[in-house]
Amino acid sequence: MPFHESVFCARRVERVFAECFLHSENTVLCGGAEEPLYAPAVHPGEPHRLWFREDFFASALHETAHWCIAGSARRQQVDFGYWYAPEGRDPEAQAAFEAVEVRPQALEWCFSVACGYPFRVSTDNLAAEGGVAADHSAFRAAVRREALRLSGAPLPRRAAVFYRALQLEFGRSGPLTPALIRATAAQPD
Fold first, then answer.
1. Domain extent for 33
2. pTM of this prediction?
3. Is 189 within a domain?
4. 188 located within any domain
5. Which residue in 145, 174, 186, 144 sits closest to 58, CA to CA?
6. How many domains does the chain fold into?
7. Phi-psi region for residue 176, left (φ > 0), alpha (ψ -120 to 50) or beta?
8. Could you say which DSSP state residue 74 is in?
């Protein structure tokens, strides 16, 4: 399927996520946020909320990847108990950011394959680089290695459920394989 921006509406991802996890995990995916945030329910009966940036399709896939990786204890904490430093990180903070982003970005790549959406590795630090292209090749390579590893083994349960549901929603089929990851080489950030 050729890339058509109108096909890749984040509302479709929200709907698929709700179909998969609203009842079983009491969690909804919500767009419109200035910054992504996971907010566990505070009051009985309300759902946990997984917020993604504005209406960005890639952000919706990325945040669902974080959620699929987080264990039950982490899903009881705001932002899964992780820190987030905004753009403008120094090299040490950027290295720490990249270390925790390898697996979520690799799983996002798998979800992108399920949708037929082009995946782009994100270093999320353009402000600190001041227009100078920093070398993130090691990070991109680590994300690729992890995506290949994930595609060569069964995905974790929630990720597998979501992957299959995305395939159905976007008219794709077949197992996730390393060949699919290789065929969809990530674009540089």
1. 5-183
2. 0.90
3. no
4. no
5. 186
6. 1
7. beta
8. G
Task: For residues 124 and 97, give the distance between their C-alpha atoms in angstroms, rounded to a whole number.
Answer: 9
Helix (H, G, I), strand (E, B) or coil at 123: coil
Query: Hey, which residues does 28 pair with through a beta bridge?
Result: 49
Angle at 79 between CA 77 and CA 81, to 5 degrees: 55
How would you classify residue 185: left for phi > 0, otherwise alpha for psi between -120 and 50, otherwise beta?
A: beta
User: What is the distance between the alpha carbons of residues 122 and 125, in angstroms, rounded to a whole number?
Assistant: 8
Per-residue pLDDT of the chain (189 residues), as tens digits, is 445 567 999 999 999 999 999 999 999 999 999 999 999 999 999 999 999 999 999 999 999 999 999 999 999 999 999 876 666 777 787 888 888 899 999 999 999 999 999 999 987 755 444 555 567 788 999 999 999 999 999 999 999 999 999 999 999 999 999 999 999 876 655
Relative to beta strand 48-53, strand 27-33 is parallel
Report yes or no: 102 and 55 within 8 Å, Cβ to Cβ. no
